[in-house]
Amino acid sequence: MVDGTSGGGVERKRVVIIGGGFAGLNAALDLAKLPLDISLVDRRNHHTFQPLLYQVALAVLSPADIAQPIRSILSKYPNVEVLMDEAVAFHLDQQRVELKTGAQLEYDYLIVATGSTHSYFGHDEWAKLAPGLKTVEDATEIRRRVLLAFELAERQMQETGSHPSLNFVIIGGGPTGVELAGAISDIAKLYMSNNFRHIDPSQAQVLILEGSPNILGMYPDDLQAKAREQLNAIGVKIRVNAHVSDVQPGYVMVGEERINAVVTLWAAGVQASPLGKLLGFETDRKGCVLVDQHLNPPGHPEIFICGDLAHIEQDGKQVPGVAQPAMQMGKYAAKRIARLVAADLGSDGTGKNEPFHYFDKGDMATIGRKAAVANIQWPFKGHWSGFPAWMTWLVVHIFFLIGFRNRLSVFRQWAWTYVTFKDSARLITGSQELPGWNAVETQQLHPDTAPLDLGSPKT
Ligand SMILES: Cc1cc2nc3c(=O)[nH]c(=O)nc-3n(C[C@H](O)[C@H](O)[C@H](O)COP(=O)(O)OP(=O)(O)OC[C@H]3O[C@@H](n4cnc5c(N)ncnc54)[C@H](O)[C@@H]3O)c2cc1C
Question: Where does the chain cross the membrane (predicted)?
Answer without folding.
Answer: 384-404
